[in-house]
Amino acid sequence: MNVFNSCGTVEAVKGVAMKIVIPGGTGHLGRVLGRALAEQGNEVVVLTRREARPEPGTRHVRWDGRGPGPWTAEVDGSDVVLNLAGRSVNCRYTEANLREMLNSRVDSARVVGGAIARAARPPRVWLQMSTATIYAHTFAAPNDETTGVIGGDEPDVPAYWSTSVDIAKAWEREQRLAATPETRKVALRTAMVMSPEPGGALAMLLRLTRLGLGGPVAGGGQYMSWIHEDDLIDAIGFLIGHEELSGPVNLAAPEPLPYRDFLRALRSAAGVPVGLPATKWMAELGAFVLRSDTELLLKSRRVIPGRLREAGFEFRYPEWPAAAEDLVRRSREALRPVG
């Protein structure tokens, strides 16, 4: 049996752990969540398409993310499936990359749903990664799960931004339509995760900040929705334990802020006094060099965690300045030589 502490963390007791299966768990978030869930005493099985060193306490099983196979035996009898599979959005939004983003998300959700539907002992909860990008580009009222406006037809934004929303809607639809009546389903509309783990958004932003490039982009009025790594981990445990929660849930800190203020707080935490501003065309050039896309910088994501807060979840880091201080400190400690 398992219990949940006041922050929502999954804690095994009496030596009996949950079995948690994480499809696509070798990426940035998979490493963070897999390691944390294993440290809490749970059996963590990562489904992966590539060779990678398992995080301590986790076990890897091969799958292709597109069809059934021996991996489905891991789902049968598990307690939780946490599906993180999908091509990274940190790339150029070419037609081929967008197609792969769509296919990797929809295909993996479909085969996971099929494995759960065929299981003799299906998991009691299926947590499916989604994205806060599903909401409209806005500078006005924040988007929660009840009153939030789904994007796709906003005026005065690049037409291809609607493709990201279409991908998110198809991703969630695949989970929603899966015939898994014995398994509760939650769609994790996740904001940008801030973590000291190498390879994530924070590492890129800190690198730019330390180069003096951490100033506002295109004016900096667009909103940044974010969540601290520790709150993401706690929220996953909270959702596993709260059986009344199903459907879309926003995983975002309750205080999104304009990008200029976000970067100002990050510069302060990093001890960098100046950040050069960037115009829109400079952002385009930088994104091209970094093989990324400006939607990640220019879309105004003002998303708040309505359902988590209503259910009683307490954030450790509700505001960005304190979160930035903690994350910069931990990033520095990770770089210090051992011994």
TrEMBL record:
Chain segments annotated as transmembrane: none
Residue ranges constituting the NAD-dependent epimerase/dehydratase domain according to the UniProt record: 20-243
Pfam families according to UniProt: DUF1731, Epimerase
Limits of the DUF1731 domain: 291-327
InterPro entries hit by this protein: DUF1731 (IPR013549), Epimerase_deHydtase (IPR001509), NAD(P)-bd_dom_sf (IPR036291), SDR39U1 (IPR010099)
Origin: domain of life: Bacteria
NCBIfam families registered for this protein in UniProt: yfcH
Family: Belongs to the NAD(P)-dependent epimerase/dehydratase family. SDR39U1 subfamily.
Record's protein name: NAD-dependent epimerase
Organism expressing this protein natively: Amycolatopsis bullii
